[in-house]
Design brief:
six-stranded parallel beta sheet; 6 domains; 831 residues; alpha/beta; disordered N terminus; seven-stranded parallel beta sheet; binds zinc ion; GIY-YIG endonuclease
Length: 831
């Protein structure tokens, strides 16, 4: 299939990005019949190597023949591009900055539904209707072969139709919507059908008829129940007049009798129909009125707009409960009115149901939610809706940065300090906040970063006047921030005032909360029952076989679990080392706290919110709903409770074990601790009353605690900044972490040493830390060695040059025979 071009041909070429970790973009020839349909940003089919077919993206069209013989592009998949120029430029930047290939970026960016490779399967299109078309003999043969849900690989089609004809045949059938490609057999795209029911029109239009119907059903309570539930729905969802159809599934979820409903349908009292629904839940916008902002919010909104006049990036530093979301909503509204698009980034969608619902009510079907955990079909639908301009607002997690916006005017990065914005696993290891700032430059759009506890890096940019700053120092409810009290655990212990993990002061505070019928949150940032098990005789601690960490005990399942790889086994009755019956629980997690509280307050409703209790679908929403309804008296939780929640009735927050976070060996531990405790504290405070926070600690004089109690962010920032400057850490320098990984410990160590030597050829001694084993030296059976590189802040060009040198040094390592199997991972700006 490959046509060779010589320099004398009037040839056109296309530079193609393939979803592969190949550093260079490959150039292909464009056959004359595709010249009119090929565009930059469109998907094309190309072959790589022998017969491997791949979907690639056209990066650039040009007329310069490369120094090698080119193959021809086989076909163009899209009539119009699925990626635009801004995206291509953004992907290129991301590859360079985060030290990966543009193919890696493309792979992360495109929903699986857009990728087609030789592994793809071909099947009949679900809407295919044979009666309405005529096909050639060959086409008919293929269609026959695909009937009854069968699939064929590309190779099988080639065998059927001959190598030359295969692609043409498939393309024709695809254009006629007779067939489609599947990425995987499991991922069949079928339009989603749903049943709807409505009361027969005659009853809806005539209230007398309806009256009669009620009387008629009086003796049939189950059917009456169906009618009543239906009526409550119709008013509740307030559909536009004339459409009284509601989802049958939703109606059945109300606990009505399904046979009674069926009966009513049979008698024509209710009618039923089937519709095709979008996979993306459509919510009609309900709120037409504008949000009413407090004077402080109005002021902040004005200041943001003023700042945007000469700054592209603005930090909204608003204390917890100050109502940042209302301000975002106003700004979004304005951009949408100007026909622009808005990207609203959240650290985690699953934990932000409240915000998402509020925005959905306001923006209805102009808004889409993008989540990497969504099925590929849904992601393709959102992608296409952004491309067509139908969606004006996308609320999403970090991968939403890759969507094909072309009217992007505003990016909001909510809770910008959150570490969830960083991609930890898999290439590219990007930080969505930083990438958003870059993305905005390609669109000339504005970026609003919001946080009660900004990241040091962000505040540093404010100080250097790179970012604008707007402060919101008043709570929306106008109550003060909760009062924070420190309880000295050592004194409590000395005076025997500790009950389990609880100080007398905290217990009393809880009792008061119960007296006033208010609610409390107890924060413990460790799940499970015991943090680890220790033999009192020989000091044996059960550890993971695959990772160098101790196992956490979960009482509910009676398991010891590794929180890093999931490895688990049943708790042995005796010590596995010495056989003594002296195994003891050490430390405590949320499970233990829940148990202790239940023992103290047997008649109170204690609920727990952590990774273990929120695994099942909707379990998170249920826990929130129970708290909102006032059913829960105490919620025990990990830091999950700090994410995007807005509880009206919580008047007390207790923090049990702060000291572990205080002394975590990381240069960011003070900053993290300040952020975490400020966010946790922010959950306290009713609309009409100041809340209270009790922190138990063995180190009440720790400087960071003084800043936390005083809610003094600037103080914390200034102190930390001095430390960072002294020890050369961000924001003063840039960090790059290089990790060598391999199942053999000695090989990892040697490769780390070799690579460090290579790095010393162009970096000075002060710039390289390591090689050193990370805190968890072995993870999932892979030993690891880290090399940290500290680079002084310099120009982008210089930084890029150093990154290229690092990549060259790594290449030298990986071409050494013993190190070929070592995996080297780059993490730029690690956190
Ligand atoms: Zn022992
Ligand atoms: Zn493990």
């Amino acid at each position: 299939m490959s046509n060779n071009h010589t320099k004398d041909d009037l040839a056109y070429f296309a530079e193609i990005i393939l979803p592969l970790p190949i550093a260079k973009l490959l150039t292909y020839g464009i056959p004359p019949h595709l010249l009119n349909s090929i565009r930059e940003g469109s998907r094309v089919i190309v072959s790589l190597g022998n017969k491997k077919l791949l979907t690639g993206i056209v990066n650039r069209l040009h007329q310069t023949a490369p120094p090698y013989a080119t193959k021809n592009i086989m076909d163009v998949l899209d009539e119009s591009p699925i990626l635009n120029k801004q995206q291509l430029a953004f992907f290129q930047w991301m590859a360079q900055y985060y030290m990966c290939t543009i193919g890696d970026v493309l792979k992360a960016a495109l929903p699986a539904g857009f990728k087609l490779s030789s592994q793809s399967k071909i099947c009949l299109h679900p809407n295919f209707d044979e009666a309405h078309a005529t096909f050639s003999e060959q086409e008919t043969r293929l269609i026959e072969a695909l009937k009854n849900g069968k699939t064929l690989s590309y190779q099988q089609v080639e065998r059927l139709a001959g190598q030359k004809e295969a692609y043409k045949l498939l393309k024709n059938l695809m254009q006629q919507q007779a067939i489609m490609f599947l990425e995987e057999i499991q991922e069949k795209y079928f339009p989603k059908k749903a049943k709807q029911v409505s009361l027969n029109k005659s009853y809806v239009e005539d209230s007398n008829e309806l009256e009669l119907l009620f009387q008629q059903l009086e003796k049939k309570p189950k059917q009456l129940d169906v009618l009543l539930q239906y009526m409550s729905f119709v008013t509740e969802i307030s559909e536009p007049k004339g459409n009284y159809f509601i989802s049958k599934k939703k109606l059945l979820q109300q606990g009505i009798s399904s046979s009674s409903l069926q009966n009513l349908i049979q008698h024509g009292i209710f009618v039923e129909k089937e519709i095709t629904v979008s996979r993306i839940e459509q919510i009609k916008s309900l709120e037409t009125s504008n949000t009413i902002l407090s004077p402080a919010q109005t002021q902040a909104l004005l200041e943001i707009k003023e700042n945007f006049k000469n700054k592209n990036n603005v930090l909204l530093h608003g204390i917890t409960g100050s109502g940042k979301t209302e301000i975002y909503t106003e700004l979004i509204q304005e951009v949408i009115e100007r026909q622009g698009q808005v990207l609203y980034l959240l650290p985690e969608i699953g934990l932000a149901t409240q915000i998402v619902q509020r925005l959905q009510k306001k923006f209805g079907d102009k808004m889409g939610v993008y989540h990497s955990k969504y099925a590929s079909n849904e992601r393709v639908e959102i992608w296409n809706d952004v491309l067509s301009g139908k969606l004006r607002l996308v609320v999403g997690v970090r991968s939403a940065l890759f969507l094909p916006f072309d009217q992007l005017q505003l990016i909001i990065v909510d809770e910008e300090h959150e570490t969830a914005y960083k991609q930890f696993d898999g290439t590219p290891r990007y930080h969505a906040r930083d990438a958003a700032v870059m993305l905005a430059t390609y669109h000339q759009s504005k970026v609003l970063l919001g946080s009660a506890t900004p990241a040091m890096e962000t505040y540093y940019n404010v100080q250097r006047k790179k970012y604008g700053l707007v402060k919101l120092t008043e709570r929306f409810s106008q109550t003060s921030l909760p009062k924070i009290t420190l309880v000295n655990l050592r004194t409590e212990q000395r005076h025997k005032k500790l009950q389990g993990e609880f100080s007398r002061i905290l217990i009393q505070a809880l009792e008061e909360v119960f007296q006033h019928q208010e609610q409390a949150i107890i924060f413990q940032n460790r799940r499970g029952y015991a943090s680890y098990i220790l033999c009192q005789t020989c000091a044996w601690v059960p550890t993971c076989q695959q990772c160098s960490v101790s196992l956490t005990y979960h009482q509910f399942k009676d398991y010891l679990v590794c929180h890093y790889c999931g490895y688990h086994f049943k708790l042995p009755p005796v010590c596995q080392e010495c056989g003594a019956h002296t195994l003891k629980n050490m430390g405590f997690g949320t499970e233990k706290i829940e148990e202790t509280l239940q023992q103290f307050f047997p008649d109170k409703h204690i609920q727990r919110m952590d990774l273990d209790t929120t695994r099942r679908k909707h379990s998170y929403e249920k826990i929130i709903a129970n708290l909102e309804k006032g059913y829960t008296d105490v919620l025990v939780g990990t830091q999950m409770i700090t994410k995007g929640l807005d509880f009206g009735q919580v008047s007390l927050v207790g923090v049990l074990d702060l000291d572990r976070s205080l002394y975590f060996p990381d240069f960011r531990s003070n900053e993290r601790c300040f952020q975490l405790i400020t966010q946790v504290s922010g959950r306290a405070g009713r609309r009409d009353k100041q809340g209270q926070v009790i922190i138990q600690t063995a180190n009440p004089t720790h400087p960071i605690l003084q800043d936390i109690v005083a809610y003094d962010y600037e103080q914390m920032y200034e102190k930390e900044l001095l430390e960072r400057q002294k020890f050369r850490y961000p924001p003063y320098v840039r960090l790059i972490k290089i990790t060598c990984q391999h199942p053999s410990e000695s090989l990892v160590k040697e490769s780390g040493r070799y690579l460090t030597q290579q790095l010393h050829q162009f970096l000075d001694v002060d710039s390289i830390l390591g090689p050193q084993a990370p805190l968890i030296a072995k993870l999932k059976n892979q030993f690891r060695m880290d090399i940290w590189i500290k680079l002084a802040k310099s120009t982008d060009q210089l930084l890029l040059a150093i990154k290229e040198q690092i990549q060259e040094a790594t290449k030298r390592l990986l071409t050494q025979k013993p190190y070929r199997q070592v995996r080297v991972i780059f993490d730029v700006d690690p956190i």
